Amino acid sequence: MHTAHRWDRMADLIRVEVAEMLLHDLKDPRIGFTTVTDVRMSRDLHHVKIFVSVLGSEQQQKDTLEGLGSAVGFVRHEISHRLKLRTTPELRFVLDRSSETSARIEELIEKTKIDR
Question: pTM of the predicted model, to two decimals?
Fold first, then answer.
């Protein structure tokens, strides 16, 4: 149980720091309006998936992921420095499409209500 709590705490700290970097430190023009939605870590804490939601078109989402991919070294270094980690996890940014999916489900539910 202690380890699970550690994962949750570490994931939350990383989520907060990456969100802060998106807001203030990353200046790549390819990175659009981006929100960190989730952070998932491997059991050994060496690999981290950072899920992001990007507002905009499919091309803007692709450009943002490319910009984040280019910034991954900087983000990794900053996380290590800010959280004072001995070993820095490998980071990977992943597009979170859950909001699009939930919006589509809502749309279908509403359509079903109207069709009745």
Answer: 0.82
